[in-house]
Specification:
Blueprint (H helix, E strand, L loop, with lengths): L24 E5 L9 H5 L5 E3 L5 E3 L9 H5 L5 E5 L3
Antiparallel strand pairs: 1-4, 2-3
Length: about 90
């Protein structure tokens, strides 16, 4: 397969390519501190923070890259970044 400068990616390829494998840190969620504001799910660049019906969140670790935006922006520190154990 020849890759040209600038590359070309088929639309929707991220559904197949799980990008969470290179993560060094992962979010650890403290449900007891959560006020269900939704800031973490709104700001996640990978849509890896998924708000459930009860407005608590779960993380899709297949796609979370461990950027820490969710933890940094949480007003109640309900998310902390911990070293990924592989």
């Amino acid at each position: 397969m020849k890759i040209t400068i600038g590359g070309a990616v088929e639309p929707g390829s991220t559904r197949v390519n799980k990008t969470g494998g290179w993560r060094n840190f992962r979010p650890l969620y403290h449900k007891d501190k959560c006020i269900k504001c939704g800031v973490c799910s709104m700001l996640c660049p990978d849509s890896s923070v998924i708000e459930q019906e009860d407005r608590y969140v779960v993380f899709d670790y297949d796609f979370c890259k461990g950027c820490g935006i969710c933890a940094n922006e949480c007003p109640k520190n309900a998310i902390e970044m911990v070293l990924e154990e592989k």
